[in-house]
What does this fold into?
Amino acid sequence: MQYQTQNIAKTYWLGALLIFAVQVSFGLVGGLIYIAPNLLPVEYFPFNMVRMIHTNALIVWLLLGFFGAAYYLIPEESEREIWSPKLAYVQFAIFFLGGLSAVVGYLFHIYADNARSYLEQPVWIKLGIIVAALIFLLNISMTVLQGRKTAITNVLLLGLWGIAIFFLFSLYNPANTSEDKMFWWYVVHLWVEGTWELVMASVLAFLMLKITGVDREVIEKWLYIIIATALFSGILGTGHHYYWIGAPGYWQWIGSIFSSLEVVPFFGMMIFCFAMVWKGRRDHPNKAAMIWSLGCSVLAFFGAGVWGFLHTLHGINFYTHGTQVTAAHGHLAFYGAYVCLNLAIMTYAFPYLFNRAPYNQVLNIASFWITSAGVVFMTVSLTFAGALGTHLERVQGMSYMDAQDQIGLFYLLRFGGGVVTVLGALLFISSLLLMPRTKTVVTGAIPAAAE
Amino acid sequence: MSEVLTKSTARNIFYGGSLFFFVIFVGLTAHSRHYILTKGTDNAGLTESVERGKRVWERNACFDCHTLHGEGARFAPEVGDVFRRWGGEKDPAGAHQMIKDWMKAQPSGAQGRRQMPQFNLTEAQLDDLADYLAWVSRTNTQGWPPRPKAN
Ligand code: HEM
Ligand code: HEM
Ligand SMILES: [Fe+2]
It folds into this structure.
């Protein structure tokens, strides 16, 4: 660690890991309600409450992770300390307590009066999130402006500003449901298939720079090319959510064409990561970080790219829209692109933050394979559930509940995959908290001498 | 490659292109909004009761179990067309009443069946909710969802 203020990332990441555990645990409760609907009393554990904790906790911890990543990598990139460490901790307190009290409130069925999916937070929590975001943007913008400017910080900053700006649409909830839906996607789609991709690409670029030692010029040029393909396809790709909500029919063509192209940036990131690792001269001792980075690019390509393309053409989406196929895609895409990204940068940075390099990475590497196997298994089970359910309900004309009764086996398998996922996540968290020192010093270049 | 495309060219293409596509997107959104408010939905029939019904739907996070026009959770059936499925086109008063009765009868407590909570809504809230579900069923969803006749 070269800069004192990189330590801020510790607080953010420990907070993120705590909420990560909450998120997957509530996922498991949701999976349990599917297979044993009478087990938990519906007065206290209705499915909707469980699902909103699961999804909101996911968003909150991923954002905490992004903030942590920014505080960790910006000092190194800008070659200066964070502008105001005090503000960074104030921001953490607001954001973390806001997120936590939202989740606790949900337990008591306190949701926003005009809640929408992922945006169930009461308005005062939404405002708290916005205040925290403003503090954050001020803090990192000041740091970046006063320091060395690199493509990595440039893209990261752009992504983070975009996240905050599009979140403002969460405050707009018109009475007309179709109009409401159209702008709801301004938050949800333009986040995960726009601004978040900028964060993903820049953090991966940083990791590749550090791990492989490839020339910065090369890495940064590819960074711009990749994010160009992301936004050129992703912005109009929003149309893949406008097929059936009361919007004009032309979205069926615009959405199909542009969202198909959204595969390109994910393919690009995967090729980029592997090419850099092959090209790289450096034999970096943190193998676990490399595995998470490569795993991120591969699973994002499958989850977002392949599983996204699977149901994005309007002729197919007509049948699969709003089935378990969507849930299958949602899981692998979020996991591959954003969960793995966060776990990769944490795995890379923790040994420096806690002054533990070199350490024994066996637990961490095992957790990559276990967690990923669990999520892939859940995804495959849900894909079967979705395909079969679609056929029974939307081709054969069975009623929804009758069709669901036919596919119970796949929900059982999903639950099994979920148990493995949770175990893997807990193993990951403990691997970072323990970080056992290894006796044998792994030989390799000194990472701090990057570039 | 490095001679053909430099880093700063790549950056300029990124900024210019993104701006270009974003402007088109905003333009299309504006057009779509106009379409929704004039043709896509029954905006003239969007009464205060419908709007209050929408808030009941949101306040109780119904979408975290059900889909509406295919969006939301997939734990429970689609409700965008439930009013039509329950015969609302021929007998609106009957479908309206069926929705209210349904809400009051939950949870079913049936073994092995997914449970819907009791929301303890007032008569007025139930009326608003039923009006809302009637209103969404009139939206032009381009023929979605597919509802083949059972064979
Ligand atoms: C990392 C990037 C991505 C993430 C995290 C992600 C996540 C999600 C999630 C959570 C949903 C469900 C939204 C809801 O209704 O609650 C969704 C829907 C959808 N996604 Fe993605 N997605 C990503 C990328 C993509 C890509 C690249 C494509 C296309 C190639 C795609 C195609 C779709 C489609 C078509 C739907 C709508 C499904 C339906 O009609 O029910 N996604 N995505
Ligand atoms: C890191 C791992 C996970 C990620 C990134 C994740 C992500 C998500 C997302 C984005 C959604 C909302 C999208 C949708 O409903 O389609 C969701 C819903 C859900 N997740 Fe997860 N999840 C994870 C782990 C789990 C686990 C371990 C389980 C346990 C079986 C689980 C069970 C569920 C259930 C039941 C839903 C609701 C789906 C529905 O509406 O029927 N998730 N998850
Ligand atoms: Fe999307």
